[in-house]
Amino acid sequence: MPKSLLEQLPEIVARGRQTAEKILESLEGRHRVGLQTREWVLPAKDSAAADWIVANTRQDALASVQAEPGDTERPWRNRLVYGDNLLAMAALLAGDPETGLASLRGKIDLIYIDPPFDSKADYRTRVVLPDVELEQKPTVIEQFAYSDTWSDGTASYLEMITPRLILMRELLSDTGSIYVHLDWHVGHYVKLVLDEVFGKRSFRNEIIYCYSGGGIPDREMPRKHDVIFWYSKGESWVFNTQYRPYSEGTLQRGRTAVKGENAVLREEGTPINDWWPDVKKITSPTDPEKLYYDTQKSEELLARIIKMGSKEEALVADFFGGSGTTAAVAEKLGRRWITSDLGKPACMIMRKRLIDNNARPFFYQAIGDYQVEAAKNTLGRSFRIGDLSQIVLSLFGALPLSSDDNPTRNLGHIIGGGVRTLIYVDSPNKLTGAATLKKALAQRDNLLGGWDKVVVLGWNFEPSIGESITALNDAGLEVLVIPPDLLDRLKKKGSLEKLRGSVRFASLQYLKVKPVSRIRHTDGRQETLAVTLDNYVLLSPEAINLDEANRGKLQAVMNAEPLALIEYWAVDPDYDGRVFRSVWQDYRGNVDNDGDPLRVVTSATLTLPAKTGPRRVCVRAVDVFGFEAEVALNVGVEVAA
């Protein structure tokens, strides 16, 4: 007879502790998890109406951005992190030397999480393009995360949440609190895990978040509330009493209880209790807050929690970021924040929302060396890069070269149709760029008497990879993308043989811009930069999780209006080759510029402080599926007549 969940719970918690302890131990090693800064966002969305106040503020912020690399003590920067929150928390515990971030162990003041708690939830994404609506299934990485979470029902869910709660406790400050938002599906089981992780003495309250509307009584009562479990880390905690307005009946009783005196009623209202029937829930499609994200919570709810549980300038975190309500409200309330999510659609929604709210500059980051971490989980902590390269070569259909000619075990070959092709697998812990391509070409020409062609398979790419390929102009060079979910799929299938034949190595997407105009003003103090998009070529549609009907619709848009696929684009007028610093953005849904919610504007005009010599201008675009492409170029200056 299978064990009940209560019988399994001690084992689940023990395994969760082991997972968390391994992560904490790894923080002391050389190969600890890090964060890659994909973008430093200086919110400055394109707008048709010029606002000189905003423009001046932007210039001040731009000056601080330009001064940043030389700083010895860097200011705090809020963070939006894409990737598995277990790895994100490990990176935050380890610290981030690249951006001057010390370890956040014991530094976060408030954590709110709203983890998925319905095993039958629909995680598909609706993508609306001009005259076309697509339905995209989650990326395979997301699918595996969701399916692993629910593979054995509630037990799997508890396996997922336990080590994460342990790391959250490590991140909390001594006076910090965590608020865990759940419903009837798993709430009572997670409460037991919370008791184990934080201790029963740290349980502060169970908040009932009520809502109305919908639900037809049939054989049972409609469910009309969620629960929010509040735990503190220590024996003291931050609590700021919140109030709600008095009801009319209470006001009337107060007026009559003591005639002529108002002392019986507080000016601010009545203190709230743990029953919250008065907090807004987003239900109406016309609600101005609605972002069409299934699990979106109202700003009113998060405002109450953040005000209640933290002080101004406190650090607030949400590791299941979703639509970004926690970060957006923390920003408005003068708190610092960190948020993360595994889903690319969620991260795109959050980035646009924060820009729309004119947030302070923030980092958009990703988990560094994700594939290395995935390989460790799949192949064991002692795996070597060569082992991974051998797997990739096998799935590509190549035979490995002998160890004498291939000491790093990353080279293979395919011979067929009279063509001898060398296969070069790049390392997952580096960016494939111009140097790698030149090395591969040299091996093609010289190794074992030379080859007709070389195919470079890469995991991660330098932003300028498209330019590098174009500049080499070599018909005997092909560059393909190793599927980022390959190891997750291998783990799921259980063997190479079961996966063989089903892995597609896709071509790169790339962005083209028209010649950039740079005009120096006659006063010599400012100059104008004009950037116009020219074309966008999407990563092979076969790599996107669409059915055939939706893929056909996508192909039609690609043929007719490729720039309509761009969800977001930004400009860095002084790219340093390391961190993209977004000082101008536009995105679908920004109707302040052209009134068109389904298209970005295709031209950007920036007025900047004058600079001597060429500018290194970088343009980044993110398409509706979350794929990124960049183009960087040196631009000389012309003097206005």
TrEMBL record:
UniProt keyword terms in alphabetical order: Methyltransferase, S-adenosyl-L-methionine, Transferase
Tell me which domain of life the UniProt entry assigns to the organism this sequence originates from: Bacteria
Query: Which reaction does this chain catalyze?
Result: a 2'-deoxyadenosine in DNA + S-adenosyl-L-methionine = an N(6)-methyl-2'-deoxyadenosine in DNA + S-adenosyl-L-homocysteine + H(+)
InterPro entries tied to this protein: DNA_methylase_N4/N6, DNA_methylase_N6_adenine_CS, N4/N6-MTase_EcoPI_Mod-like, SAM-dependent_MTases_sf
Cleavable signal peptide = none
Q: Does the keyword Transferase apply?
A: yes
Entry annotated with the keyword Methyltransferase? yes
Q: Give residue ranges for domain DNA methylase N-4/N-6.
A: 108-349
What EC number(s) has UniProt assigned to this enzyme? 2.1.1.72
Residues forming coiled coils: none
Instruction: Indicate the family of this protein.
Output: Belongs to the N(4)/N(6)-methyltransferase family.
Please report the name of this protein according to its UniProt entry: site-specific DNA-methyltransferase (adenine-specific)
